Amino acid sequence: MHKKKSLLLLLSFIILLASACTGQITPTAKQLPVVATTSILADVVSRVGGNLVSVTTLVPPGVNEHEYQPSPRDIAAVSDAALVFEVGLGLEQFMDAIIRNASDDITPIEVSSGISTQELLIPHDANTAEQQHEHTTDPHVWLDPANVIVWTENIAAALSARDPAGSGTYQANAAAYIAELKALDEWIRSETARIPQEKRLIVTDHMLFNYFAEKYGFTVVGALIPSYSSLAQPSAQEIAALEDAIRQYNVRVILVGNTVNPTLAARVAEDTGTAMVQFYTGSLSNADGPAATYLDYMRYNVKTIVNALSGK
C-alpha cells in the first residue's frame, strides 16, 4: 500500500513538473533566428538583439563581400530565419541568388534605409576621348558611426515588430549601443584633430572612404580602383593619372583593405614613394583579432590612419 501511494505521489510530481516546464516556454524564451549579411552588420544586430536572438552571418570575417559566393547552407539559413538583415544600397549582390533559391518569399530588411547617402561618379569607359561616367550610390555607410545609429534604430524597430514581447529589451539594448556609438564619434573627432589639415590626404584601394572623409575632414585624392566594388579593374590610364595626383598632392598614405589583394597598391606605393597601410573595410577580424566588433574595428582603423599621417 505504501509503495503504491509513493508511486502515485511520484507520478503526480512528474506531471506537475512537466506542466510547469511547458508553461515556461514562451515565444521570447526561445531565441529568434535571424540572418545578417556581413560580419559588421551581424555585430550590430547582436548588440541590439542580445540574448533574445541567434545571429547567423553569411559573409564570414576576412572575406570580401564583393566576391562572396553563397552556399547551400546560406540559402537554408535564410529560408529558416525569422528576419534577414542586409546593408542594402547595392552592396550585397549575392543576395539575389539566395532569394531566388530560398524556400519562402524573403524580403530582407535594408538597415541603411533613411541614411543620407552619397553618390559616386564611376568612369564608364576610361579609354575614350570623352570619358563617360555613371552615378551609383556608395554603400559603405558604416564608416560614419552616425549611420550605424540609423542601422541600430532600424534593427530595433524590426525586431520589436517581429517579437513584441521582447521590444523593451531591444529598445534598451539599442539605446545603450547608441550611447557607445556617440562616444565613438567624439573619440574619432578627438583623435583625427591631431592630424594637420594639409596632411589629411589619402588614397584608398577602391571608392569606400567618402562617408568617413566627409564626416571627419579628410580628402580622398583618388582610389586605385575607381569603383565602389574592389572587383573592378582599373585601366593603365587611370593608374597613371592616380600616380600623378599622388605626387601632385604629396599624398603620404595608400589605405588597403584587409580583404583586397595588395599587389596593385604595393606597385603604386613603390612608384610614388608612398606608404601602403592595411586597414579593415567590409569585414571584422576574427574573434581574437584587433577588430572583432564594430567599435574595435573603427578604433583600429582610426589609430592606423592617425599614426600613418602623423608619422608615429
Description:
By secondary structure, this protein is α/β, with parallel strands linked by helices. 46% of the residues lie in helices and 17% in strands. Strands 2-1-3-4 form a 4-stranded parallel beta sheet, sandwiched between helices. The longest helix is centred in the middle third of the chain and has 26 residues, at 167-192. It starts with a helix and ends with a helix. Mean pLDDT is 86; it is low at 1-28 and 124-133.
Indicate the topology.
Layout: H1 2-24, E1 32-36, H2 39-49, E2 53-57, H3 72-80, E3 83-86, H4 95-101, E4 109-110, E5 119-125, E6 132-137, H5 145-162, H6 167-192, E7 201-206, H7 210-216, E8 219-225, H8 236-249, E9 253-257, H9 263-272, E10 275-279, H10 294-310
Parallel strand pairs: 1-2, 1-3, 3-4, 7-8, 7-9, 9-10
Antiparallel strand pairs: 5-6
Helix pairs in contact: 2-5, 5-6, 6-10
CATH class of the largest domain: Alpha Beta
The major beta sheet can be summarized as: 4 strands, parallel
Spatial strand sequence of the major β-sheet:
2-1-3-4
**Helix/strand structural class:** alpha/beta
The CATH superfamily of the largest domain appears as Nitrogenase molybdenum iron protein domain
Instruction: Provide the low-confidence segments as ranges.
Output: 1-28, 124-133
* SSE pattern, N- to C-terminal: HEHEHEHEEEHHEHEHEHEH
